[in-house]
Each structure stands twice: as structure tokens, then as C-alpha cells.
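Tutorial, part two.
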Amino acid sequence: MKKPVHTILFYLLVCAILLFSLFPFYYAIISSLKSGTALFRVDYFPFTWHFDNYISVFREQPFGRNILNSIIVATAVVLVSLFLAITAAYALGRIPFRGRTGLLVSILSVSMFPQVAVLSGLFELINWLGLYNNLIGLILAYLLLTLPFTVWVLTTFMRELPRELEEAAIIDGATPWQIITQVFMPLLSPALVATGLLAFIAAWNEFLFALTFTLNSELRTVPVAIALMSGGSQYELPWGNIMAASVIVTLPLIILVLIFQQKIVSGLTAGAIKG
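Running the prediction step on this input gives:
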């Protein structure tokens, strides 16, 4: 008798979690389909659909360019982060040297600092390099957020790989780079997908660095573009446009998660099932 009750309680808990997680996005969708005073009326299902907000988002500001900027920056951050992280993970996870643990802890400790604490120093560095108001400068700034996490996670996975594979590759005359690319990377594909997607989400959603290191509207990423949307007066905000823009920039993340969900689950759970 207890088992059906536990099952019912479990599904009720799952439904409550799904409602809590998905309702804000659902309400953003139905709000983006309203216009005028209907935006301030509480409706849980739109009876009339208006797509004017989606059109005006692209008509009133260079939002298409902002999306392209976010795609370029987030993709570059993922590629550079994974390239540097997998080479660093090979050194930290497979090559014994003095101070290896301390170096790994130092890399992870970088991510413990709040963004505001490093903002001024990073701004001076990017300005000195001549990369202010440049997407390359934004990519370098984002590496500070993504590299510590990717290095730590990939090092953990790299340590779990059987040493016999590496020894066999060395006997066959493989170089370290061949071992990384041809032996380890296929085995690390779930971890690479999971960490790469998390790095992409971090770069896609980042706001403070994007606001500080870009000046022109044509170089802004989507979080800054949405935050700086304004209406006809100082006290008027185009809530319909903001909701429509929020839906637009959230959809790519949902699509990526749905495409790579099996790899993500494998990457996040592989370390937990290894003895």
C-alpha cells in the first residue's frame, strides 16, 4: 500500500519542480504574444496572438547583429576553452610533476572570485592590449569564467581513463598530441560535450563583462542588448519586446540541450559511477 503512495508523491514532486522551472519561460512566451495594455493582464493562455513584438525587436535595434555577436563569442570561447582545457587536463591528469595538485587548486580558485573583484584589473589589461570594444577582448575575458571549470572537470575525467591505453599508444610510437586527439578525445566526448555546453551557456548569458568591454550597439551581445532596450520615454519599457527577445535568445540553448542531452547525461554521470 505504501508503494503507490510513494509513487504518487514522487510524481507530484516532479510536477511541482517542472512547474516551478518551466512556468517563467512559458509566461515569457505568452507575454511576448501580447501588445498594449494586455501585457499587464494576467492570462495563462493567449486568446489572440500578436507577433509584432518579434518584428519590432529586429526593426528597432540591431538585434540580429547582437545574436551573431553572441554566437561568435560563445562558440570561440567554447573552442578555445576545450582546446586549452584538454591539453592542460592531459598534463595535470596523466603526467606526474611536483606541485601538480597545488596548480590544479590554483586554477580552480580563480573561479571563486566574483566578477566585480577582477573587473577593474581585467579592464586595464584589455585596454592595454588594445582590445576594448572588440569581440576578441570579450572572448579573452570570458575565458576567465570558463577555463577553470573546464580544466577541473576534464582533469577529473582524464585521471579515470585506463593507463593501459596510453601505454599501448606509446609502444606504438604515438606522440602526446596523437594520444590526446586519437585515444583520449573519443573517450572523453561525453565530458567534452557537457563542459562545452556549460561553457557556451556561461558565455551566452554573461552580462557584466559584455556591458563593460563593449561600447557600440553593433558589438553588444544579447544580454546587454536586452537590458538596454528602452521605450519612448525614460520611464517606459517595451515589455513585449523584452519578452520576445528573451524567448528568442533562450531557444538556441533549449535546442542545444535537446540535441546533446544523451551526451550531457553521460558526461555528468560518468564520474559518479566509476569506482
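The CA atoms of residues 36 and 133 lie 36 Å apart. In part three we will examine how such features are distributed along the chain.
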